[in-house]
Design a protein that fits this description.
6-stranded mixed β-sheet, mainly beta, 21 strands, 6-stranded parallel β-sheet
């Protein structure tokens, strides 16, 4: 009996140490932990570092687990203020793909806390199985390529805290059907929504002055657009390839049209 009690006490002392050992440090005072159920948790206080891409792979410490399809959910805890560039971006060689898909496993959902103010470049690029992400009302900037190629993401709520949307931020999100850009946004980069093939409806804010080059290029199902009267410039091929377009409202404020702004628009 005494021996059993002693073993139990030893296990109680060891248990918290074992749990804590799963957390691995990265950046400045930050930690990551991957559990057996495929949940990657990022914790700590401050900005996640901006990672880089080498040979089409991120150098984040969990990159190998992401490539192997071991990460299905990401939970970023309160206290993180910036999601680093290339943090969760995915790449799969073409030789491993089927004809119409990128990958069939991997990251499916992301939980972002209210402490995050910016989403870095290519943070979730080509996470092709990502189906759910909620951007909180604390985020002010979504950088270039942030969600590029997230082909299974069907919708995104851009909160009215966002000021800028970078180049190609949502390009290739082929299952988007509608987008509402809030009036807080003053800048939308080139090709931000390019090749969103199923996009039928877009509402633009009265806070932007330029529709950049190819901003909605190749949005094949976009049928109409009301350009707000704050816009002065429509860039090159801004709506090029929008082959279902039947109605465009252009205000008198527009004084500068780029080359082929509405090319192949029926």
């Amino acid at each position: 009996m005494k021996r059993a009690i002693l073993i139990y006490m030893m296990l109680c002392l060891i248990a918290p140490i074992t749990i804590e050992a799963k957390k691995k440090p990265f950046g400045n005072g930050l930690y990551w932990e991957l559990t057996d159920d495929g949940t990657l948790t990022i914790s700590g206080q401050g900005r996640m570092p901006d990672f880089t891409e080498n040979k089409k792979k991120s150098n984040s410490p969990w990159c190998k687990s992401l490539e192997e399809g071991k990460i299905s959910n990401v939970v970023i805890e309160e206290g993180i203020t910036h999601i680093g560039s290339y943090s969760f971006c995915w790449y799969m060689p073409v030789t491993r793909l089927k004809q119409t898909e990128y990958n069939t496993e991997g990251l499916r959902s992301v939980k972002i806390p209210n402490s995050v103010s910016s989403i870095g470049e290519s943070a979730f690029r080509r996470c092709s199985n990502l189906q759910s992400v909620v951007i909180p009302n604390s985020v002010t900037s979504i950088d270039k390529n942030a969600f590029w190629g997230c082909i299974n993401l069907k919708s995104i709520n851009i909160p009215n805290s966002v000021v800028s949307i970078g180049e190609l931020a949502f390009a290739g999100c082929i299952n988007f059907e509608s987008i509402l850009v809030p009036n807080s946004v003053t800048y939308i980069g080139k090709s931000a929504f390019r090749s969103c093939h199923n996009l039928c409806s877009i509402i633009l804010p009265n806070s932007i002055t330029v529709l950049e080059d190819t901003i909605f290029g190749d949005c094949k199902k976009l049928q109409s657009i009301d350009i707000p009267n704050s816009v002065k410039t429509i860039g090159n091929c801004a709506f090029g390839g929008c082959e279902s377009m039947t109605s465009v409202t252009i205000p008198n404020s527009v004084t500068d049209f780029g080359w082929f702004a509405f090319d192949i628009c029926i």
